[in-house]
Amino acid sequence: MVHRLVCFVIAFVAAELAGAPGICAQSLLSDSVQLTEVTIAARRYEHFSAGTRTLQVDSLLLQRQPGLTLADVLQQRTPLYLRSYGNGMTATVAFRGTASSHTAVLWNGFNIALPTLGMSDFALLPPQFSTQVSLQHGPSGALHGSGAVGGAVILENPASFTYRQQVRVQQEVGSFGHHRTAASGSYSNRRISLSSSFSRTSSENDFRFQNTAAFGKPWERQQNAAFRQTSFAQDIHYKLSPDQQVSVRAWYVNTHRQIQPAMGSANSNARQEDENLRLMAEWAGRVAGGRTSVRAAYFTDRLDYQDNSILSLSKVNTLQSQVEHERNLLPHLLLQVGTEGQLFRADVGGYGGEVEEYRFSGYAWLRYDPTTKLQLSLNLRQALVNGYNPPITPTLGANYLLLEESKSSLTAKANISRSYRVPTLNDRFWSPGGNPNLQPENGWGYEASLLHQYKNKKVTGTTEATVYALQVHDWIQWQPASGGYSEPVNLSKVKGHGAEIDSKWQWQPATQWTLLGGLAYAYTISEQKLPNAWGELQERQLFYVPKHKLASWVDFRFRDWFLTADATFTDLRFTDNDNNNWLPAYTLVNTGLGKTFDLRRVQVQVMAQVQNATNTVYQTMAYRAMPPRNFRLSLAVLWNRFKSQ
After folding, report:
1. Is-cis flag, bond preceding 432, omega within 30?
2. Is Repressor there in the keyword field (predicted)?
3. 218 in Cβ contact with 225 (< 8 Å)
4. Where does residue 262 rank: exposed (0-12), middle (13-18), buried (19+ CB within 10 A)?
5. Residue 270 in 3-state DSSP?
C-alpha cells in the first residue's frame, strides 16, 4: 500500500509541475525567519478553548533538526516530564501529575493513541518539518474525547496555497554511532499544495554509564540498546473550487529497537519492531450557510516483541470517521456540531483471539463573544462505547480583557472541564488479569490564569501564570493479584493541584541580530490516599511525578550565525507508592552553534551540538541508563523559490 501511495504522489506531482505557471521571482530566505501562510481554519480547537492554557511549541527545533521525535521536542521546550526507558527507547509524557494514558495525541483531528495501551510512545512520533505542535493543558474531554484527562498534544499539518518550491536535505552524525538523514520538499500554487518528508535515524547507543545497581557503582558499556527508525510523510491538498478543498495525508514510521536492559538485570537480547501506518482523507466546503468537514482515517499499528524466552505479536487496525458542521448563528455566536465513530480490531497474543470495539460520540462546541473584551466557550460531548456508559463531558471557559494599553494587555482566563477515559483493550481482555468489570475513569479540572502580552518596536513577549486543581475518580491502575500476576483495578480517587508559568520573549535591537528566549515552569502535586504501616490513610505523591520541573531556552542570531542553548531541571521523583525510594533531581544542558552560507541559489547550514553538556549522570526511570555528554554535527542544504504576489 505504501509503495502504491508513493507512486501515486510522484505521478501527481509530475502532472502538476508540468502545468505549473512560471516563477516570477526568486529568493533565498533563512529557514529561521521564514513564515508560511497557512489556512486559519486548520486550527479548529482554538476557537472553542476559552479559559484553557495552550502552548505553541517553537517550530525552529523541527526546522533545524528534521527527524527529531516528539520526545526530543517536548523534553527541550516544555515543562512536561518525559518518562524514558533509555535513549531512543519507549518515552511517554504526562500532564499535571496524571498517567501516560491520560494524554491524548491528536493528528489532524484523529486520536492516534494505541487502543491496546491507551497511550502514545513519543519516541515513535517523528513529525514532519511542517508540523505545528501545540499543547493543551488540563482536561478536555469535550474537545478531544477519551484520554484527554491531563492534557492533549495536537499535531496539525495545515495547507499553504502560496506559490512555493522548496527542497531541504540534511545529514547528521554524532557520538555512539548516531546517524540521521532527512529530506523534505514542498510545492504549492493556487490550486495544489504538496509536502513530503523523509527521515532515517539510527544509533548504536554503546555509551558508557555508571551502574548504580552494582557494588561500587562501576562504569560499564551499554549493551543491547541500538535502534533505527525510518519515517515518511506525505500531504496533498487540492482546491476543487474557492469554497471546496480535499486533503490526503499519509504518515509511515518503522522502528526497530533492541530493548535496553535495566541495571542489575541480565541481557535477554530483547528487541522490538514497531510499524505504524496512518492514512486519512478530508473534504471541506461551504454547505447550508456554514462550513462542513468530512474526514476518514485508517491506522494499522504492529508491535512485535521477542527475547530469549518470549515471542509476543500484536496488530491493531483502526477505522475512524468524523463529520462536522460549523456556522455563525449570530455575528458573535459560533456553533460547531459533529459526530465521530471508531472501530478497533486487535489481534493480540495476550488476548487469546481477535477482539473488536466500537465507539461513537456526538459533540457540540459553542463560542460566544458578547463584547470585544469577553470570549466564552461552552462544549459538550457524549460518548457511547459497547459495554460502557461514559459520562457526558461539559467544558465552560472564559477570557476577559482586564487591561489594554498601546504596548501591553492583561487577560484573565478561567475554565472548568470534565473528562473521561474508557478502559483500554489490555485492561479488559489481557489474559490472565484483564478485568471486564472496570468502570470508565472520569475527572474534573479547574483552572484560572493571567496572560500578559507586550509589544513595542524592539521587544515582544508573552507571560502566562496558571493555577489549577484536578481530581480523577475510578483511576485505573495495574496491581499485583493473588494469582501471581497483575490486574487493573479502579482506585477511588486521585487528586492534584499546582501552578504553571510560561514566558517567551524576543528582542531585536537591530536588523542584524535577534535574541529569543523562553521559560516554562510546573509545580505539581498529585496524590492518592494509601495506608501506612499502621493502616492509616495518608496522602502520597504519585510515583514518577516531580514536584518541580523547569525548562528554559535561548536562541541568539547575529547575521548568518546562530547560537542556541536549552536547560531543564527535574526535581526528585518517587519510584514507589509508599514514597520510600526516589530518583535524585538533575539538570540537563544542550547547546548548539551554527552558520548559514548563501551560495547563489542554495543555502548551506552547518551546525554543531553538544547534548548533556554538563555530563550529568541521571535516570528518568529507575535503573535505565541515559547517555553522558555527546556531540553531533549536521550539514543541511536548502533550495527555495517562491513567487511574489
Report:
1. yes
2. no
3. no
4. middle
5. coil
Give me the residues paired with residue 635 across strands: 171, 606
Number of H helices, E strands in the chain: 5, 36
Closest residue by Cα to residue 120 from 96, 80, 92, 141: 92
Arithmetic mean of pLDDT, 328-350: 94
Rounded CA-CA distance 621/40 in Å is 40
Of the given ranges (16-25, 156-165, 228-237), which has the lowest mean pLDDT? 16-25
Beta partners for 134? Answer: 56, 154
pLDDT at 5: 38
C-alpha cell at 522: 510546573
Query: Are the C-beta atoms of 426 and 477 separated by less than 8 Å?
Result: no
Three cell numbers written together for 243? 469554497
Structure-block grid coordinates of residue 356: 473488536
pLDDT beyond 90 at 307: yes
Nearest to 72 by CA among 82, 59, 60: 82
Q: Can you identify the CATH homologous superfamily of domain 2-642?
A: TonB-dependent receptor, beta-barrel domain (2.40.170.20)
Which value, to the nearest 10 degrees, does the dihedral of the CA atoms of residues 194, 200, 201, 204 take?
180
Overall size of the chain counted in residues:
645
Cα dihedral value 386, 489, 100, 203, nearest 10? -100
Burial grade of 516 (CB within 10 A; 0-12, 13-18, 19 or more): buried
Show Cβ contacts of residue 454 under 8 Å, excluding neighbours closer than 6 positions: 407, 408, 460, 461, 462
Statement: residue 143 has pLDDT above 80: yes
Instruction: Work out the pLDDT band at 537, boundaries 50, 70, 90.
Output: low
Measuring CA to CA, which residue among 541, 478, 620, 498 is closest to residue 118? 478
Residue 631, all three cell numbers: 556531540
Alpha carbon distance 507, 514 (integer Å): 6
What's this model's pTM, rounded to 2 decimal places? 0.90
Q: Give bridge partners of residue 409 from the DSSP assignment.
A: 404, 453
Q: How far apart are CA 475 and CA 496, in angstroms?
A: 13
> Residue holding cell 502560496?
162
- Alpha-carbon gap, residue 222 to 374, rounded angstroms: 57
Residue 34 has pLDDT above 60, yes or no: no
